[in-house]
TrEMBL record:
GO terms for cellular component: endomembrane system; membrane. Its EC number is 2.7.8.8. It comes from Actinacidiphila rubida. Its main location: membrane. NCBIfam families: pssA. Keywords: Lipid biosynthesis, Lipid metabolism, Membrane, Phospholipid biosynthesis, Phospholipid metabolism, Transferase, Transmembrane, Transmembrane helix. This is CDP-diacylglycerol--serine O-phosphatidyltransferase. It catalyses: a CDP-1,2-diacyl-sn-glycerol + L-serine = a 1,2-diacyl-sn-glycero-3-phospho-L-serine + CMP + H(+). The chain crosses the membrane at residues 36-59, 71-90, 110-128, 135-152, 172-201, 213-234, 240-260.
Length: 280
């Protein structure tokens, strides 16, 4: 008498008993599509920095320094990435995001606001006459590490609603490229880049771009794109306009921490005064 083969049925039953529950929906939402647009812009910024600035320099086909059109294309793409990053959060709050939304956002931010500006700094250090490539590479590594640490901390900590802890990575990326486009001497530029990296991992609180602040951020991004276009096309006063925009960006990066710290100190003092009044 032949015994029935129970191997297959046992294996199937074990899978049915031990199999995980069905995962949450991984279909991409509108917010996820915007997040992917962020990643695409960051990657294309690296592409234009390589093909338009680094390769001509290595082949001896370009002039010394950063190519205007290629640098403008790369920075414009980073600005577009920040627009996608701004709107994917707004859309996710209004509609929905898939189960992958948070992970997609972190990965896209790492490309657009970590890798792309850091690579921009490295190429600037290689093609500019008065720069030092190795020192620029160290500063670029610090930028990448700051963004990685910032995104990791954001994923595992909970803050009060409406604030970021540390300079937001899109704002930090725009400040880094603004420092390069200002065409300051090498040492002050490097010090500024390292300072931005430190601010991104600091505990200084920054307001989230919501409501009126989101509108102001969007308008400022569009104005910055206009400045880049004027500079690239050689519009009279375009260079001065770009320099003014970069200077305003760096000024905001320098004074926002002071403003945020002052506001926090005043809040703590007010709380202490209230506590003392309540105990009397």
């Amino acid at each position: 008498m032949i015994e029935p083969d129970t191997t297959e049925s046992t294996w199937v039953s074990e899978l049915e008993e031990d199999g995980p529950d069905l995962p949450l929906s991984t279909r991409l939402s509108i917010a996820d599509a915007l997040t992917l647009g962020n990643a695409i812009c960051g990657f294309m910024a690296v592409y234009f920095t390589t093909t338009g600035v680094l390769v001509p320099h290595l082949m001896g086909d370009g002039n010394s320094g950063m190519s205007k059109s290629s640098a403008a294309n790369a920075v414009t793409l980073m600005l577009m990435a920040s627009v996608f990053d701004l709107f994917d959060g707004l859309v996710a709050r209004k509609l929905r995001s898939s189960a992958m939304g948070a992970e997609l956002d972190n990965l896209s931010d790492l490309i657009s606001f970590g890798l792309a500006p850091a690579y921009f700094v490295i190429v600037w250090g290689l093609v500019t006459d008065d720069a030092h490539g190795k020192v620029a590479a160290v500063a670029a590594v610090l930028v990448v590490l700051a963004v990685v640490l910032r995104l990791a901390r954001f994923s595992c900590t909970t803050l009060r609603d409406g604030v970021f802890q540390g300079m937001p990575s899109p704002f930090g990326a725009m400040t880094v490229v603004s420092l390069v486009l200002l065409e300051l001497p090498f040492v002050p530029t490097i010090i500024g880049i390292v300072g931005v990296a430190w601010l991104m991992v600091s505990r200084v609180e920054y307001p989230k771009p919501r409501g009126r602040l989101a509108l102001i951020t969007f308008c400022w991004t569009i104005v910055s794109m206009g400045c880049l276009a004027a500079w690239t096309l050689g519009v009279p006063g375009g260079h001065q306009l770009l320099q003014a925009g970069c200077a305003l960006q760096c000024t905001a990066a320098a004074f926002l921490p002071c403003f945020a710290t002052t506001r926090r100190v005043n809040t703590m003092r007010a709380a202490r005064r209230e506590a003392r009044t309540a105990t009397r």
